[in-house]
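Team,

Forwarding the record for the chain on the shared tracking sheet. I've put the sequence and predicted structure together so nobody has to dig through attachments.
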Amino acid sequence: MFKPVSLPPVVAAVALLAVMTVCASTSASANDALGRHPTGFTKEELAKYDGRDPELPILLSIKKNVFDVSGGAKFYGKGGSYNMLAGKEVTRAVALWSLNEEDFTDDVSDLSKEQLENFEETYNSVYKAKYPIVGHFISSHDEL
């Protein structure tokens, strides 16, 4: 899915500032579009934010954190190469670099230590670094 890129420190700093600026504005617009403060999303509620409705932000959940990935709409929006991840809890899919629907879950209990370490790196460097968290995912086995 993603390939790490090395950048000179000055370029990396400018890129990070640009991403932080986009994320800050995206976070505010997501909360405005959601009409509420960050909160919990059930599977059914999260599914509404799958990129089909241009009036709604594009959301996905990883590690039960719901991210607004609207800033990456060309990837996660309608017709994008990762659109099938939008509106879903996709922890396992991201950990396995999988686009298979059976991996759209938060269950990573059978993954190896190496897979989990690689996943943490991707989670932190791609999702937490680029996209704002706007809520949390409530799975069917969580207490409501």
